Amino acid sequence: MWGTLVNGAAIIVGGALGTLLNRNLPERYHSIVFQAMGLFVIVLGVSMAIKMQEMLLCVLALLLGGLLGEALRLDKQSERLGDWLKRKLNMKSERFSEGFVNTSLLYCIGAMAILGAIEEGSGQFPTLYLTKSVMDGFSAIAFGAAMGVGVLFSAGPVILYQGGLTGLVLLFGGLMDAAIINEISALGGLLLVGLGIDLLKIQHIRVVNLLPALLVVIPLLVYFT
Hints:
Blueprint: H1 2-22, H2 27-49, H3 55-72, H4 74-88, H5 96-109, H6 111-121, H7 127-147, H8 155-172, H9 178-199, H10 207-210, H11 213-224
């Protein structure tokens, strides 16, 4: 699990460097960083989503998952968590919750988070997580510069999520189907496109409320394929 810990540390270091830049950057620089990262997230998401094979099932999972997430008000719950952390830590950053939620989504949804868990959980050297650490560290600098200290705290969900996945692979790795992993990854790419659109302020998309789709798609694929 040390690959996951390195990943979390890279986010903290990158976010801290970005936060230091945040204090000295004029607002127009914040805006261009948002635009650059928004474009990057969209391209990353498209590169994952085009690998989707079971489109109808993924669309159905997206609809059902979105309805479930909306019913549970996951977006509001995540905002409350960010606000709670902000109060407990006495943070003054106006964008604390935004930085925490958006970067947590970005770092957890990607294909490398899933494939890295499979690699590390099966006893291999965590090459994917180390590569992801470099990518996440540099992007954390950019997001930290734009959104402040909240970015650092996304390391927590990343460690919990990737550590949990790695543990599941250790226990049930032999039962995992490559086709299901591909569809989960592709669906995650679609959610990243939504996150990029939200970052660019083209349209507010409640990506957090769509997250249950990543779980809903599994029984659909098992039953219908």
